[in-house]
Design goal:
271 residues, alpha+beta, Double Clp-N motif, Jelly Rolls, 2 domains, 5-stranded mixed sheet, 4-stranded antiparallel sheet, 35% helix, elongated
Length: 271
């Protein structure tokens, strides 16, 4: 569980971000300054995750639109009605207005615990390969925390690229078996249901399996009922919801070349 920072820890972390030269790339350091200034000019006391992502966009629109779908520009406008790009985004408005009567504009670097954790996680990833944290590093780091990604999603932001997720891709698997046309591979498969998994359950069938040839046709029965079929090349994959018992039996009907192959996977809600 992520730890909440005390006042001294938070102050130390923010001081390091402001004055250290060993943590962040120039682009990322400037992004934090833009974020803080935009928060101050928009009357926000503290920069959160969404504010920080908006600050990254103010720093580098081209790079950020490569990685985030949705209308990132609209999210920035909604989140920061007052904002500027380029060098002007690093200076308070009073410095840009020669007729301003204000003598100065002071703003603090206040970041939420989530932002501080995110920046340090980005730096951890970067330092592991011998460099300073960049925009890409903190984007990658954000994907490691579901709460952060959920917050970005609620704000209308989504990643352009599919992100590998071990818990989803591996942790949800109830049963998996590759099979081949060779008679040494049984056409009858059995497995017991781990009671920790919960429905709904989905059966995924795909051909081919790995680098082997595809089967031409495969029909799948589960506990005596026809549930799925695939055919090459028109329908190489299928995914259907299925009902499981404590003990289950899969029967396969296959047609294809000697090295034809396919994969069977059943997923559920992980414990």
């Amino acid at each position: 569980m992520k730890k909440h920072l005390n006042a001294s820890q938070r102050g130390y972390a923010q001081h390091r971000l402001m004055f250290s030269t060993d943590l962040l790339s120039l682009d990322l350091a400037e992004s934090l300054r833009r974020t803080s200034l935009a928060c101050a000019e928009n009357k926000k006391k503290q920069a959160g995750i969404v504010d920080f992502i908006c600050g990254l966009f103010l720093q580098d629109r081209v790079e950020m639109t490569r990685h985030f779908g949705g209308s990132l520009a609209s999210v920035v406008t909604k989140n920061f009605p007052i904002h500027r790009f380029g060098n002007d985004g690093l200076r308070p408005r009073t410095m840009l207005d020669p007729e301003s009567s204000e003598e100065g504009f002071y703003y603090s670097f206040e970041y939420s615990d989530d932002v501080l954790h995110l920046v340090w996680l980005g730096q951890k990833l970067a330092s592991a390969v011998g460099k300073k944290a960049s925009l890409k590093d903190v984007i990658a780091a954000a994907t490691l925390n579901r709460e952060w990604m959920d917050e970005l999603s609620r704000s209308g932001l989504r990643l352009e690229h599919a992100v590998a997720d071990f818990d989803h891709e591996v942790g949800t698997i109830v049963f998996h078996k590759p099979t081949h046309m060779d008679k040494a591979w049984s056409r009858e498969l059995t497995f017991d249901l781990d009671k920790e998994f919960q429905p709904p359950f989905r059966l995924e069938v795909s051909t081919p399996s790995g680098p082997f040839q595809p089967v031409r046709l495969a029909r799948v029965k589960l506990n005596g009922e026809d549930v799925a079929d695939v055919s090459w090349p028109k329908k190489p994959t299928t995914s259907v919801q299925v009902q499981l018992r404590t003990s289950n039996k899969i029967d396969l009907e296959l047609d294809g070349p000697p090295y034809g192959s396919m994969d069977l996977t059943i997923r559920g809600i992980a414990p």
